Amino acid sequence: MTARIIDGKALSAAIKADVAQRVVQLKKQGITPGLAVVLVGEDPASHVYVRNKAAACEKAGLYSRVVRLAADVPEEQLLNTVRELNADSTIHGILVQLPLPSHMNAARVIETIAAEKDVDGFHISNAGLLMTGQPLFRPCTPYGIMKMLESENAVLRGAEAVVVGASNIVGKPMAMLLLAAGATVTLCNSKTRDLGAQTRRADVLVVATGKPEMITGEMIKPGAIVIDVGINRKADGKLTGDVQFESASQVAGAITPVPGGVGPMTIAMLLVNTLEAAERCAELAV
Ligand code: NDP
């Protein structure tokens, strides 16, 4: 059996085209959705991500502002930058690119972002709203994965969903979204005993560990939908996921590639979240 490839590039292009149309409508009401991305330091991967986010915004007609701060900037200066953006009516979404330099407290920085502009969905009150079934912003990566599952017409109600990796930005919110959709969710971490016994039960398997190709075909239930969040660079410079694509695609029913799977969806959902933040502003202004 060879799995269907879930094409994140094509699906994200369709979502971005829809965002662009809604932006045109919003501009007619005098509102241009604006996203501010704050980048601290020189991490090369972060620079690439921020450039891609800004380019995607501009292409869809959103206003984008990138605020760059030196790696040794005092935390208080970063907090003041965030506070200024909170008060700026041209900005509807604020994102502080992670990871932050080690002298900073990332949790404190995220809590300083106004919850109604927290388009990453990482603020504690947005995490709480998601957990209690009243989401304001869904974190972009899990949100994009839900859109992929929707595009596959995956039946989530009553399905066994296994999420490998329990970070605040991917694994935990992923588990909450799957639970809200009616799946029976198992959330695994690095201490999970006999991981294969868990993953082999999964109708839907989401892997976000940062451990290259750790999930092999023999750990997958035949016909399962496999979503690979991992982005790892191999010695030859090529990207690979947390799932061993070659063996997994022989067993799975559908699978996301790396690159071209979850990555493009994450950016598309950032645009959706920013647009929706601006739409909420427009509704308040009426
Ligand atoms: P973190 O390092 O924050 O979390 C990793 C999680 O995986 C932890 O919960 C950890 O367990 C768990 N884990 C690690 N090793 C194992 C193992 N052997 N078995 C089971 N669980 C394990 O990572 P992130 O969630 O931030 O990112 C994960 C991956 O996804 C990375 O490759 C990252 O680059 C990628 N990513 C991709 C995005 C995209 O847009 N495509 C967006 C965000 C991330 P424990 O809690 O016990 O430590």
UniProtKB/TrEMBL annotation:
Residues 6-120 form the Tetrahydrofolate dehydrogenase/cyclohydrolase catalytic domain. Residues 139-280 form the Tetrahydrofolate dehydrogenase/cyclohydrolase NAD(P)-binding domain. Gene3D superfamilies: Leucine Dehydrogenase, chain A, domain 1, NAD(P)-binding Rossmann-like Domain. Coiled coil: none annotated. Homodimer. NCBIfam families: PRK10792.1, PRK14186.1, PRK14189.1. This is Bifunctional protein FolD. It comes from Eoetvoesiella caeni.
